[in-house]
Amino acid sequence: MGHATDAPGAEGSAKAAGGSTRAGARVLGPPRLRGFAAQVLRGQAQVTFLPSAVAGAVFCLALAAAGWEYGLYGLAGTAVGTATARLLGADRDRVGTGLEGFNACLTALCCAVFLGARHLSTALLALAACVVVTVVTAAVVQLLGVWGLPSLTLPYCLVASVMTIGAPGFRRVWHQGEGLAALPRHATGTTALGPAELARGFFADFAQIFFMPQWYVGALLLLGLLLADRRAAGVACLGSAVGIATAWALGAPAARIADGTTGYNSVLVALALCGVFLPARPATVAYALVGAGAATAVAPAMAALFAPSGGHAFTWPFVVTTLVFLAGAKSFPRVSGSPPAA
Amino acid sequence: MGHATDAPGAEGSAKAAGGSTRAGARVLGPPRLRGFAAQVLRGQAQVTFLPSAVAGAVFCLALAAAGWEYGLYGLAGTAVGTATARLLGADRDRVGTGLEGFNACLTALCCAVFLGARHLSTALLALAACVVVTVVTAAVVQLLGVWGLPSLTLPYCLVASVMTIGAPGFRRVWHQGEGLAALPRHATGTTALGPAELARGFFADFAQIFFMPQWYVGALLLLGLLLADRRAAGVACLGSAVGIATAWALGAPAARIADGTTGYNSVLVALALCGVFLPARPATVAYALVGAGAATAVAPAMAALFAPSGGHAFTWPFVVTTLVFLAGAKSFPRVSGSPPAA
Amino acid sequence: MGHATDAPGAEGSAKAAGGSTRAGARVLGPPRLRGFAAQVLRGQAQVTFLPSAVAGAVFCLALAAAGWEYGLYGLAGTAVGTATARLLGADRDRVGTGLEGFNACLTALCCAVFLGARHLSTALLALAACVVVTVVTAAVVQLLGVWGLPSLTLPYCLVASVMTIGAPGFRRVWHQGEGLAALPRHATGTTALGPAELARGFFADFAQIFFMPQWYVGALLLLGLLLADRRAAGVACLGSAVGIATAWALGAPAARIADGTTGYNSVLVALALCGVFLPARPATVAYALVGAGAATAVAPAMAALFAPSGGHAFTWPFVVTTLVFLAGAKSFPRVSGSPPAA
After folding, report:
1. Residue C313 distance to chain A (closest CA, Å)
2. Do both C289 and C147 map to the same domain?
3. Closest-CA residue in chain C for A91?
4. Is C305 on the interface with B (CB under 8 A)?
5. Do C103 and C109 contact (CB within 8 A), yes or no?
6. Which of A153, A169, A185 lies at the terminal end of a domain, its last residue?
């Protein structure tokens, strides 16, 4: 019911850290600090389902490449989320593998990007939001646990949506005059896609997972994935390609494909459905790529649903598509590899 | 947890078709083709909860009476949905009674009506949507199964909503210029209802289940119901009458009553709550008619909820009302005929 | 899974009333009438989780102080809801402690406030809505029961939202010309909060639970709480203070704080999370106050979500925040006082 763990060493160090938590001795002494740091880095990497401190460190660099504030917000957010979960007595395995950090990482980043990273109000709100998203994570784990479904980035999507939709209602939080609420508009602009836009879009699909439009941020993130798990990196690349192909076939504007906004959900869906929550087999590769295409088709609908309230799609298309395809897989023995659960 | 089956012969032929699936021999040989055709026709009829191939054939004619493309989209959609479910290894009883076909039928029709039946893009998108709605159906069956609730047309409502809300975001899919997003407006126009409008509305309530406004399409659909199950036809007529009465009492514009847009949900609610998912008894007739009235009252709220994003109500009012009344019935022994499940 | 019961005598009289229901004798004879009246008064008090007839009577006076129609709608609504539940054979303990009345109370009030108390159409619609909200309550109890979560005012929020969003679609129901649908606007107006506004806001937070903006109505409601349960009254006061502090810190307009629209959800969240659904301990006080602050932050987002459809936030922020914090608490042994349920 959580993300896959394939780093036994990391697991061990997490256990050790947990052990000193229980003893209650030497608060933040060096070994404990080291354990906490590893949990935080793994928390960063769990955005792409990897409990890998190395990938987390590379992700951190990638964010800093987009702007040092973003690197800082992401890291601090993961730390606050992980610390809150420990303080509240959350499950130690979840904390150890970074599962209590990645929603907070994205939540803090969302504050920085949408409310302005350099306002003190943004920093304080991000701190509070990272505490709250930990409670929301626990709630979502309980609610989806009934169906044996993972919580994915749903907690982050909930908190980020509430925050961006509600922010213009608070004068000390919102510094941009008018809010963003508007009726959705139909797509305009050329759909002709050149090789340069294709390449930019391929990498930007990775960067947009963290709200960043720069292709080189995406390339760094892909490097992190490659270092941690080559199979996962391959699946993610397939997901990005399917996302671009679907968006092009349906007629999304080329500019939206090039900046990664049409395809980032496909990367996450492909990862989740092939190797993380379903076994990596030929049937699941096909199923995952159908899912990746579906997420791309779902994205503008989500954007249009939130537009009149001033909200954003975030990773809602990924969350909704993945939960549907995971729940559906239970009825399809050819996909799930086990007899139907109905 | 599925729709009621009261056609043992049909069940038998479904079993036979399933048997040859398992053997894997003679792909699409004549007997198997005949079995598949029966499943598809039953799938059409399951839109009104009937596992009857005869009713399905009449429904097909009714759609063709509104336009041959609609008959074709409906039939092809049901076939694609049923075939996808078989390919993925879905439960054979569900496939045999047509339960894997009706959501795909409505999804394909929705594409034809909202995106233009004669565009190649619409046909291809309908094909993809019918594959995806089969996965969504499996997911909804799993999710609602926790409460012992049926999936109804919820899968279709989800896919159709995503499609109509998202379509203007894709230039190769949307051929109508501006999207449909607009703030909801208050009702205008006379509420005085003449006998001609009354009669038209009564039949159009049936036609609008399939998005059609013509009274004679509705009359043909009612004929299909009558041929398959006279009691169900009677309950459906009561539902249509209650829908019209409620809409008139609340002050819906007469033109909306006459074209069936205010009452089609009532027909489906009455069918579902009296004889299909609850036993047909005096107490459930009353309960079903309260539900039919409630669905009529819920409809404009659903339309207003979707309007700013450019979406439609589809059969959301039916789905929401029926699920609430079915879940509620578990607490009321006088309605459900069994001790409370709380 | 229901609200706390701390009135054993009341429980007894409820049982007696239930007994005569079963016997079917002496419909509305004096002892039975007295039992029913106590159930109705307890139903009023359950809006703030108190199964206390005394508090219910004071609440009734408080509503009448705002306008006799409101007192009448509230009382009649509770009576209709309670009677419907008895008629449908709902659980007798729930009826006896008033748990079948409070959603109907708020639903009827909502009709009076939003549709105009003096229209005959409003009275008839309130009657129908109170019948339907009883079915919705039963459904929500079933649905949330899977997670062991209480239904709170979710049934009322659902019915009230449908009603206010859908009302402009019906000409005999809506008497105010244009509907209320509009894109959300950013906050304007001073955030400087004087002591008079502070005091007004503190009491108005109680009054707005019932849609009333008058501080003296809130003071009367607080009196009712004090008479029934002094600890609960203290927690509610803390909730109101946290709500005001959070709203001020985030920069809500002072006028919104003074009329209670920013803080009423905090009162309910504090009550629910400290002493009603979680044990009253130091850890839960802290948890409840974080929840009370979160509800205040969530409120403008809910308002913005409903604005384009013409809806209102009602007690949605309270419901959503409380359900999340209750579900989350199951994973935090330090808060729930028991081992994690995951």
Report:
1. 12
2. no
3. C331
4. no
5. no
6. A169
- CA distance from start to end of chain C: 18
Q: List, as one string, the DSSP characters of A218-243.
A: HHHHHHHHHHH-HHHHHHHHHHHHHH
Q: Is residue B207 part of a domain?
A: yes
In total, how many domains does chain A have? Answer: 2
| 3-state class (DSSP) for residue C46 | helix
Do C66 and C207 belong to one domain? no
Would you call A185 an interface residue with chain B, using a CB distance cutoff of 8 Å? Answer: yes
Q: Spell out which residues of chain C touch residue B327, defining contact as CB-CB under 8 Å.
A: 138-140, 142-143
Domain check: are B260 and B322 in the same one? yes
**What's A325's domain CATH number?**
1.10.3430.10
Using a CB–CB cutoff of 8 Å, tell me whether A165 touches chain B.
no
Tell me the nearest-neighbour CA distance from B324 into chain A, angstroms. Answer: 19
Q: Report the alpha-carbon distance of residue C210 to residue C54 in Å, rounded.
A: 18
* Beta-carbon separation of B88 and A334 below 8 A: yes
* C120 has a chain B CB within 8 A of its CB: no
One digit per residue, the tens of pLDDT, for chain B of length 342 reads 334 433 333 333 333 333 333 334 444 457 788 889 999 999 999 999 999 999 999 999 999 999 999 999 999 999 999 999 999 888 899 999 999 999 999 999 999 999 999 999 999 999 999 999 999 999 999 999 999 999 999 999 999 999 999 999 999 999 988 888 999 999 999 999 999 999 999 999 999 999 999 999 999 999 999 999 999 999 999 999 999 999 999 999 999 999 999 999 999 999 999 999 999 888 899 999 999 999 999 999 999 999 999 999 999 999 999 999 999 999 988 887 766 554
Chain CA centroid to CA C104, Å: 10
Is the CB of residue B165 less than 8 Å away from at least one CB of chain A? yes
In this structure, the answer to whether residues C119 and C240 fall within a common structural domain is no
Asked whether residue A148 falls in the same domain as residue A7, the answer is yes
> How far apart are the CA of A34 and the nearest CA of chain C, in angstroms?
24
Does residue A187 lie within any of the structural domains? no
The residue out of C117, C134, C169 marking a domain boundary is C169
pLDDT in tens, B288-341: 999 999 999 999 999 999 999 999 999 999 999 999 999 999 998 888 776 655
Q: Is B50 on the interface with A (CB under 8 A)?
A: no
Asked whether residue A176 is assigned to any structural domain, the reply reads no
Q: How far is CA C177 from CA B46, B291, C120, C167, in A?
A: 42, 29, 18, 11
Burial environment of residue C25 by CB neighbours within 10 A (0 to 12, 13 to 18, 19 or more): exposed
The three-state secondary structure class of B183 is coil
Distance set, CA B279 to CA B121, B229, B275, B288, C291 (Å): 44, 15, 5, 11, 44
Which SS3 state, helix, strand or coil, does residue C274 take? helix
First to last CA, chain B: 18
Do B222 and B126 lie in a common domain? no
Cα C146 to Cα A108, B278, C42, C77, C135: the distances in Å are 32, 22, 26, 28, 18
- Contact flag C174-B184 (C-beta cutoff 8 Å): no
This model of the complex carries an ipTM of 0.89
Stretches where chain A sits below pLDDT 70 are: 1-29, 338-342
Q: Which domain holds residue A134?
A: 3-169
Residue whose tokens read 């999936």: B151
Query: What is d(CA A112, CA A116) in angstroms, rounded to the nearest whole number?
Result: 5
Q: Which of B87, B143, B165 is the closest to A327 by Cβ? A: B143
Cβ count within 10 A of residue B232: 24
Find the closest chain B residue to C88 by CA distance. Answer: B332
Alpha-carbon gap, residue A199 to A257, rounded angstroms: 10
Q: Which two structure tokens, joined as six digits, stand for B155? A: 């899968």
Residue B254 lies in a domain: yes
B126 with B204, same domain? no
Nearest by CB: C251 against A89, A132, A172? A172
A165 and A201: one domain?
Answer: no
